[in-house]
Amino acid sequence: MTESSVWKPHVTVAAICEKNHRFLLVRELVKGREVFNQPAGHLDPGESLEQAVIRETREETAYDFTPQQLCGIYRYIPQRGIEETIIRFAYSGVVGQQHQHPLDEGILSAEWMTLDEIRQTRADHRSTLVLQCVLDYLEKPSYPLQVFRSACQ
């Protein structure tokens, strides 16, 4: 098998942020459509998963985020076909200070929503992972951050 024929999934991170029974979501513009998602994005070269979720949360919401637990690891295959697969690492944690800086390109707003509001907007979610990650956070055990270890050099 050649290097060019090796299948490579997209690695993403997402922040599950709860405060006063509300969850922090972003309203973003994707392919001309407004959708809701957790603060989320791709892992950049050279950064840890925790660094990525901190960075993505700050870029998309202007809030500081401190991950405390790993809520789940998800394999998601968009409807476009099996060639594109996303592996999502969802973290829960503490939301800190909100800064005054522009949000990432494509992000329209950061919004706090109740579970009922998240359910009611299901048709406008970027993917089925939005609701599933919140439900898993509420209903399933989470794991300590130490469950994931970086490779030794």
Notes on the protein architecture:
The chain contains 3 helices and 8 strands; from the N terminus they run ββββαβββααβ. By secondary structure, it is α+β, with helices and mostly antiparallel strands. The model has no long low-confidence stretch (mean pLDDT 92). Helix content is 20%, strand content 41%. It has one domain (3-141): Alpha-Beta Complex (Nucleoside Triphosphate Pyrophosphohydrolase). The two termini are 26 Å apart.
Task: Give the number of helices.
Answer: 3
Instruction: Please report the total strand number as a whole number.
Output: 8
Within CATH, the superfamily carries the name Nucleoside Triphosphate Pyrophosphohydrolase
Runs in which pLDDT lies below 50 for 5 or more consecutive residues are none
Q: What is the CATH class name?
A: Alpha Beta
Task: Indicate the mean pLDDT.
Answer: 92
Structural class: alpha+beta
Portion of residues in beta strands equals 35-45%
**Shape assignment:** globular
Domain count: the total is 1
H/E topology pattern: EEEEHEEEHHE
* CA distance, first residue to last residue: 26 Å
- Rg on CA atoms, Å: 15 Å
The CATH architecture can be named as: Alpha-Beta Complex
CATH topology: Nucleoside Triphosphate Pyrophosphohydrolase
The proportion of residues forming helix, as a percent range, comes to 10-25%
Largest sheet: 8 strands, mixed
